Predict the structure.
Amino acid sequence: MHNFIFGIYPYIALSVLLIGSVARYERDPFTWKSSSSQLLRRRQLILGSILFHVGVLTIFVGHFFGLLTPLWLLEALHIPHEAKQILAMAVGGVAGVMALAGGAILIHRRLYDPRIRATSNPMDILILALLLVQITLGLSTIFVSAQHIDGTEMVKFMRWAQGIFTLDPNAASYTAGASPIFQAHIFLGLTIFILFPFSRLVHMLSAPVRYLWRPGYQIVRSRRTVPLAARPDASRPKAHRAAVRPAAKPAE
């Protein structure tokens, strides 16, 4: 079972994450959204959303570089594992508390406001609940890491993560004997990867970076109910032309 969870399950999770995301974007592009409910309880949403997103993004970046930075590079830069461990505990702790507080606000808002609850689907609530459990597990690992301040536990998971991406057949063995909290944290993280393409989390991949090289574009909503090709010509009655005329003239 250990070999399956840490040696095979990661490839299943990453495959579903990649293939599922591409398939959803191609087959159901109009579902690729965050389904914002910001018109309801806007102030609570802003506070919870900022705390949650800043915390989660900080954690994601920290995990990405913390796990995938080659050990030889740390040695070449003369960065001791102990220093990296303390930095990870400090930054991860602050970011984790922010994400947990923000997530608690968001899930309270979604569960206890009847209007927001009515616009939520079960996956919205499930994925947010799983993220809160995952953040709680992550914060719990700080107490375990404090008992291994020399970074030995951290190195185990660095070797494991890098072994997965380099197709190391012995990757699962690197996590043998690790704390059950760490193992549960990894297992739940991989499970969230599997659920990613089927939830609102896909909006994480929709950062509008293309507008950096396409200046001058603005996304607007139009009140026009008749397509441009079907607009009336001058021969039609004036009253009819006024009825279908666009509500607002675009700014110069």
Remarks:
- The first helix runs from residue 2 to 27.
- Residues 216 and 252 are 12 Å apart (CA to CA).
- Confidence is low (pLDDT under 50) at residues 240-245.
